[in-house]
Predict the 3D structure of the following.
Amino acid sequence: MMDPASNQAPIVITGGCGFIGCNLADRLATRGDHVSILDNLARAGVRENAQWLKSRHGDRITITVGDVRDPITVIDTVKHAKAVLHLAAQVAVTSSLDSPVDDFEINARGTLNVLEAVRLHNPGAPLLFASTNKVYGRLIGDDAITRMGQRYQPIDPGLAQGVSESAPLDLYSPYGCSKGAADQYVHDYGRVYGLKTAVLRMSCIYGPRQFGNEDQGWIAHFVLSALRGAPLTIYGDGCQVRDALYVADAADAWLAVLDRIDATRGRVFNLGGGPANAISLLELIDDIARLSGPVSHSFSDWRPGDQPWYVTDIGALANATGWQPRTSFADGLRGLHGWLAGRFAEQRSREALA
């Protein structure tokens, strides 16, 4: 039986073949950690990510095909872990509206399964949870924002640095409810049972290994649409603002919280690019046009829970760990565009030879 404190004990990543998970797995394996991934391999692109990880790291990466909704599989995966990074989730608001029960079972019940497995079988293992800014709901009303050029901004000067962890929760959409419930369960298991938990409420993460679509991964979706010459649908007026964080910087943040768990345990952190990396949808379209040419787009109604403005205050995380984003949005967008363009060109070549 492997001692979880052993250097050979793995760090478990649920959803580790997804976009953020595989980037975390790559970073951990590169620095010498053993990584055990639990993933049901259900989403587009995850099998490609799994092959990429195995080709780079071989036996340092172990992949178990399984689902966090199965408590026995979860127990078997985490009981000897050195730490658990829980990213497995249903990630789209639209999917939660179509199938709210499935959304709950994956996000809320699946997280409870992970928590119980750690509590009962490996209570010394740190547990970090991937939450979302959607737990704050729409956040501010139409009367609290003003339009400046192609973007909205809040009227309240107190939001100049972004949204802090003190903002009240306002769970909106089934997705917001399921992730919010999981968020609070993780936080409370640290408080009530003494587990070494930390919650990261993430804003827009983007970068290589992201297979974006209309429901999730909007920056990659916009870039892919431009590369394919496919028209985009903008829900709302396009002036809504998000702060964007390059995935390498996001991985740095996760590892900073994990490596300083004695100082970060019991904490909830907002994680994003901050005010310096905030961008509206219309501004992004202009930026992509400079890389790929004109982007065809049309407009449709706002969707439930859409936030007209959300920018992360990253001060708490920076103060606790010393972390700061290092990649500007311009540089990050070029990196994502280059990766997607290369992959798209390879795909076209394979299709031409078929």
DSSP finds twelve helices and 15 strands in the chain.
